[in-house]
Amino acid sequence: MEKTVRVAAVQLDVRVGDVSANMNGCETLALRAVAEGAMWIALPEFFNTGVAFLPELADRVETEDGTAASFLRDLSARHGVMIGGSFLCRIDDGSVRNRYLAFADGKLVGRYDKDLPTMWENAFYEGGDPDDTGVLGTHGGLRVGAAVCWEFMRTMTARRLRGRVDVIMGGSCWWSLPDVLPGLIRRSWERDNGQNAIGCVQDTARLVGAPVIHAAHCGRVDGGFLGLPPLSYRGHFKGGAAVVDGTGRVVAFRSHEEGQGIVTAKIPLGSCPTSDEAIPQGFWLRSRGVLPTIGWHYQGWLGRLWYRRNRA
Questions:
Q1: Strand 212-224, strand 167-171: pairing
Q2: For residue 291, how many C-alpha atoms fall within 13 Å in the half-sphere facing its CB?
Q3: In this structure, is the dihedral angle defined by the CA atoms of residues 61, 86, 258 and 54, taken in order, positive or negative?
Q4: Does residue 227 have a pLDDT over 80?
C-alpha cells in the first residue's frame, strides 16, 4: 500500500537534562509542523532530555505514564497526527530502556526499545529484547517501523526491518567529536562523522526499501568523560533532521548549522521494491573511525558498570 502524505522531522536545540525547556521546544516545533500540514511527525531520540554523561539524567527517567508519553498521546489526539519519539523509560521490572513510542489520533501504535546503548548511554539504560523486530504496528494501512541513532549504523537494523515496514520513524542524538582534539585532525574526522550521521540513514532506507522520517538534536553539549573525571566533553550535536525516500535519496535536510527548526516534505509512504543489493554481512554498515570505536568499547564498559551501581 502506498500513500502520499506530508511528513515532518524536528530538529531541537536541546538543553541536556532540562525537561521543561525541551518539552516546550518540541511542542513549538510539532505545532509548526501541524500548521504546515504534516500528518506524520518525528521527534528526536531522548526528545525530553537529550543525552550526555551527566549523572543527573538518572533522575529524569520516566514511565509510560509520565509527561513524555502523555505529550505524544495528547498532541496526536488534538491534531489527528502520527507522532513518535524516544525517552528514558523505566519498565515494570525496574530497569530502564531507551523507549520509542508512536501515537496516532491519541492511540498507541506501538513501542520499541533501542537494541544497544551507544558509548556513555550505557550509564542510563540497557538494550532491548534482541528478538524485537522494531515493527511498531500499522497506521492508515501502512506498516510502521522504528530505528534510532546508531541503529542506523548497524546491519542488524536493515535485516530486522527489510520487507516488514512501509515507513521508518526515527531520530538521533548524535554528538560531534570533542573540541579538545587538534584542529586538523578534528576537522578531518568530523567530516567523516558528519557523512556517517546522514549516510547511515540513507543506507538503511535503501537497504530496507522504505522512507525514513529522521529527527535530530542540534546545539552545544557539555558533559563528563566516564573514567576520566578531570576531563569534560565539549562538542555539539550533529543535527541532520531529514526526510529520506525508500531509494536512499535525501528529500529534505537541515544541518546543525541551521539550528533549531523542522523539515517537511510530501512523499509517498510505502515499501519500495528492494534492489538486489545484499545487506552486508558484518556488524557495521559504515566504518566508525578510530575515536568512536575506542569510545564504543571503553565508554560502553564503564557505562554498564555505572548503570548497575546507580539504576535504583
A1: parallel
A2: 14
A3: positive
A4: no
Residue by residue, DSSP assigns 270-304 as: SPPPP-SPPPPSSSBSS---HHHHHHHHHHHHHHH
Report the b/e string of 125-154 with b at 16+ CB within 10 A: bbebeeeeebbbeebeebbbbbbbbbbbbb
Opening angle at CA 268, ends 266 and 274, nearest 5: 140
Residue recorded with cell 512501509:
166
Please report the pLDDT score of residue 1 as a whole number. Answer: 60
The span from the CA of 208 to the CA of 183, in Å, is 37
Residue in the block written with cell 556488524: 283
Question: In whole numbers, what is the pLDDT of the chain averaged over residues?
Answer: 93
Half-sphere exposure of 188 (CA within 13 A, CB side): 8
The C-alpha angle with vertex 85 and arms to 117 and 196, in degrees rounded to 5, equals 55
pTM of the model: 0.95
Q: How far is CA 173 from CA 6, 159, 241, 266, in A?
A: 24, 23, 11, 25
Q: Name the grid cell of 84.
A: 513518535
In the 8-state DSSP scheme, what is residue 248?
Answer: S
